[in-house]
Amino acid sequence: MTVLQIDKIKAYYKINAYGNQRTVKAVDNVSLEIEEDETFGIAGESSCGKSTLIKVISGTIKPPLTIIEGKVIYNFGDESIYIGKVNGQEEIGKVTWEKVSYIPQSSMSVLNPVMKVRDIFYDLLKSHKKTMEKEVFNETIKEHLNSLGLPIEVLDLYPHQLSGGMRQRVIIALATIFRPKVILADEPTSALDVVVQQSVLQLLREIQNENKNTLILVSHDMSILANIANRIGIMYAGKIVEVAKVKDIFENPMHPYTKFLINSIPRIGDKSDRLSIPGFPPSLADPPNGCRFHPRCPYVMDICKEKSPLLCEVAEGHNVACFLTSEESEDGKY
Amino acid sequence: MKNPFIIYIIQRILQCIVVIFIGTTVTFVIPRLVPSTNPVETAIARAQMMGQYTDPKAVDEMRRVLKKLYGLEGTTFQQYIRYWGSVLRGDFGPSFSSFPTPVMTLIRVSLSWTAGLLLLTTILSWIIGTLLGGLAGYFSEKPWARILEIFTNAIRPIPYYIMALLMLILFSYVLPLFPRGGAFAIGLTPTFSWQFIRSVIIHAFLPALSLIVVGIGGWFQNMRVLVSNVIREDYVVYAETLNISPQDILYKYVIRNAALPQLTGLALQLGMIFSGALITEVVFNYPGLGFLLYTGILRGDYSLIMGITFFSIVAIAVGALIIDLLYPLFDPRVRYT
Amino acid sequence: MENTEKLLTVKDITKVFTRGSLLSRISFTAVNNVSFEIEANKPEIFAIVGESGSGKTTLARIILHLIEPTSGQILYRGKDITKIKSKRDRIEFMSTVQPIFQNPFETFNPLKRVDSYLYETALNYKITNKSNLERFIADILNSVGLSIEEVKGRYLHEFSGGQIQRLSVARALIVRPSLLVADEPVSMLDVSLRMSIVNLFKELKNDQNVSIIYITHDLATAYYISDRIAIMFRGDVVELGPVEAVLARPLHPYTRVLKEAVPEPTPTQKWGGKINFSAIEIEEFSRVGCKFAGRCQSVMEICKKAEPKYSSVDNRMVKCWLYK
Amino acid sequence: MFNIIKDLFKFDGRFRFSIITLLCIILFSLLSFWSPYDPSSSYYVPSNIPPSAKYLFGTNSRGQDIFWMMTFAIKNSLIFGIITALLSRILSIFVGLISGYKGGIIDKVLMSINDSFIVLPLLPILILLKFIIGRMELTTLALVMAVFGWSWDARLIRSQVLSLRERDFTYTSVFSGMGTLKITFKEYFPFIIPIVLATTVNNMLWSLGMEITLAILGLSTVEIPTIGTTIYWANQHQALISGIWWWLTFPVIISIFLFLALYLLSVSLSEYLDPRLRIQQARV
Fold it and tell me: CATH 1.10.10.10: does it fit domain D57-282?
């Protein structure tokens, strides 16, 4: 059952500083369907709009970010949440933590520096389950931490006393306490060391197997997604350029950008030459017209410079947005 | 590993001692700046020229005290040590204008008035300023926040004296609601009767109001800027995604963190607030240290001014130390590694 | 002077940081007697790999003479840099070694024109006279794949991360250094753009015989680019040797754990094994004996008591009690 | 520099208000050169006349035309404020640069002295000093105020220099062969100038306020007309009680406008010149 449907979402930043207005087209006409009990990876490099997409999905939309068009629908069988544009009005449904939780990048400053870990949990539970006596609260927290293999003493520590890995575990405990249906993780391990990163990602995978929840994981590191995701969506300059099962993405990448992305990853034991993508990522304030990858694409054709290719199914469960594999463009057949 | 809490306390105590040391040295050096041969004579000459008739006994006693205070014999270093000796015992000799009462008793009497006024207004203006600034910073789009901001922007730059004058003109001349000065109705003896306390409150209201209004302007602006930075911090954005209740976010996350630098600011601004209180007392001739200082100037009472200067340095240094020692209670990062 | 002159000799370098004021002395060893050498006549890329807190950046700062070591010596062509006093010595030292920094947007002053650094370096080191300065700079820029038009009169924010790193390399090449010390030069760039800079380093080694000390936490890039590799953990160099040997058959338990933790970009080889870790990091710094004992699968009693010695195995140096 | 002012003028209401007000006040003070009366003389006009067409601001009980007196008062006060602000810059930049750049023991010693000067209650000390030294023209008073007015700004400049020293481009400059002095002036000054500008205006605000306070206590040379001495004479002649309200209201109103304009100028300047802000704008 599709738990999350993203339908032609356009979300731009409208920035006005000292007279010069600029609109940054961070997420431009993105459509995705994400199933229940699935780990969906969103791969993309800096300024490709993946963090903005997470903001839109999690409903944390604050100026200067506004939704121009399209909608995001969660349906959990009994209840559905709607975010998007309805006849000109921006409507942001209340995405509660019981249904959709969020794991931010593991930076030092994500937990309130002046509160103990216990109080952060208490605030979270208080704001969701109003009647929470002390003993019941202590019980639920202890049992939840044990299930994640976290030492109980952590509750009485302050965030600055925790190591990087431990802090990220506390954030994961916060995100999974209500057994939410969907967990959004935005680069959860990019600030961690390789060894700690492995243990944190294994923890996420165990939680997903146990709770059968949907895990949407955003990362710039394709190798991480190869190890943890079932399906991967490649994002470039505000658009989804390829979506497929993880095996197909790595064994049979179709979009030129994906090919470059995979080939440029160095592997231990293989010293063969690796090539970078020529040029540099386009600025989202005035993106190139037509297909946004065309200035850097070795297979560029004339059509690529005028029209923007539509993301459509090319093989079973394998969607690509490129004129090499389909003729459809976003505004009708060319 | 030594607990950082103790290190912090020791450092703050050391800083307080350094402040008192520098303050005392400055008050010791100033009279010596005068190129003339004998600072005692010049001081007495200046005092006589300023003050009214002074009986000769007072002048001789003054000369004796100042000689002892300066102890012109011996090297400047010996004078310096003797100066510290008398200062630490609080012995600034008798007040020149209201002879034979020692300077310290005069200070102790007017101290209670200044302390009452200063403590009350500083704490009140800090709390109100911080709270209002926090709210205005958090709800910055709301109209009331904008109005408050413009209003405090207008108040903040006005110096203490001008504000005191404005209050005096508005609330005791234009609309005569409050008395023009003094601390209590003439003819009342200072007892704890309700009548006396009522009169004290009425008299102290205007000076307190003017001090609070100036204070709030400053604290409001600082807090508003601090809050507008804290709102963008990761832990606030994360708390919002956690759907933690807005009240909790506002008080436990935003104001709680923004108030920390505000507390350090209070310790640093104490000196300025004290000077402001002194001048406000002069406008309302409220019988605190400020007014005592003013009369000391009028009457050229040199040892009184010296005593008040030294006393205010120590008081401010200790006040700043107390606030600094409060800081670790609010910031766990200082209490634990 | 020794016969085969060494470009760089790092001899028993130790750095102990002490925090806290005069009353309290909390000290921890960031770098613990590290020694290695770089040949003068044979340009090579020497990778130093370690996690955060392993001391690799401190070591780099010591080699660049930006901070003083607590003990030990750094010799450039036999001359000890801690003895540098005169400006002439300083200029001579800096024309043999130049730094490349991690964050491109911190390498140049955002409020100054970027090309001013190129002219500044060329004039200060008296590389060319004013007349053909423009042409000289243009050549240097071409050697790193940039053109003078792209760079002239522009400010930092008008460039991408990759371009700025190329500019940083160009600035360093002006003085024709024999050694570049690059502290995580590509970690801030996108994966797809990293290879262009990494390949640039390989060209510098092969065509302009510049040796490079390449500091990173990314084992895969280190394997791709380096000839020799040193693995650091909490201040110790635990393993040092040719990169194929070290990564094909890791000897030190930590090297093995580090290698297994690197995610392979192929879906078939998923991670196995369970990782245990220490909740609070500070513990590991002040640990007696081998610093990895807390996490090591093959830990022995001796590991907890005494600090292991270096032993030479399969032409590599390993600091572990498993090997005598 | 010019385009900064143009930008600010167009978009920042506070800056527009403060520039206009300051210009009016400066023009008003320049009128003093065409004043028909000599400021030190008195009783040349009938006294205590409320404001009228003939005497715009009315006259005071010392027989002086308040309008022309105020032109001199504002001029002297402004000169005093500027001198104090500039003199105290020397000390604050010197201390800020040294302790920021040298660090270590020098930084600790300088900063503990600096913090002491911040905490010290300056009014009683200034009163003691003035009481001893007695007569003092405005310039020496400005010098004295400068000696006490540098500590706030030295602290700001120091923290800016400290943060700059840790940034990588300092090492790039060192390795580009630049000496310490060249780095300080070529690399750091564009960062320090905004702080120096904003704190200069703040210091003027502080010194003008202090001048008024000292004058009211009768400690500054009361013959020289400044905002403070005007109020001092008004108090001496019980202006409020005897109903000559205009003697006090005009100096108070003008000084409020002056202080407001200076404050808004420093706030809008530091907000605009904040390097972090400028880089963000450019990059977006």
Answer: no
Q: pLDDT for C181-191, tens place per residue?
A: 999 998 888 88
* SS3 label, residue D136: coil
CB B206 within 8 A of CB B171: yes
- Which of D176, D179, D283 is facing C121, going by the closest CB pair? D176
pTM value?
Answer: 0.84
CA–CA distance from D98 to each of B307, D89, D113, D117, D162 (Å)? 35, 14, 14, 17, 10
> CA torsion angle for A156, A158, A163, A165 (degrees, to 10)?
70
- Asked if the structure places residue B235 within a domain, the reply is yes
Is residue C277's pLDDT more than 60? no
Which residue would you say has higher pLDDT here, C49 or C286? C49
Q: Is A245 exposed, middle or buried (0-12, 13-18, 19+ CB in 10 A)?
A: middle
Kind of pairing, strands C6-19 and C26-39?
Answer: antiparallel
Find the CB nearest B238 among A110, A113, A115.
A110
The per-residue pLDDT for range B110-147, each reduced to its tens digit, is: 888 888 888 889 999 999 999 999 999 999 888 999 99
pLDDT in tens, B181-235: 777 777 667 777 788 888 888 888 888 999 999 999 889 988 988 898 898 888 9
Model confidence over D159-201: pLDDT tens digits? Answer: 888 888 888 999 999 999 888 888 888 888 888 888 888 889 8
Q: Is B2 on the interface with C (CB under 8 A)?
A: yes
Give A29-41 pLDDT, tens digit per residue: 899 999 989 999 9
Tell me the three state secondary structure of residue A41: strand
Structural domain spans, chain D: 57-282
Q: Do B2 and C21 count as a contact with CB atoms less than 8 A apart?
A: no
Which of A104, A124, A174 lies nearest to residue B234, judging by beta carbons? A104
Q: Is D281 in CB contact (< 8 Å) with chain A?
A: yes
Specify the CATH number for the domain of residue B237. Answer: 1.10.3720.10
Domain C6-96+175-266+280-323 homologous superfamily, CATH? P-loop containing nucleotide triphosphate hydrolases (3.40.50.300)
Contacts C281 to B, Cβ<8 Å: none
**Token couple for B282:** 């002069």
Taking CB atoms and an 8 Å limit, are D128 and B305 in contact across chains?
yes
Q: Which chains touch A (3 or more CB pairs under 8 A)?
A: B, C, D
Asked if C190 and A197 come within 8 Å (Cβ–Cβ), the reply is no
Strand pairing of A318-320 and A312-315? antiparallel
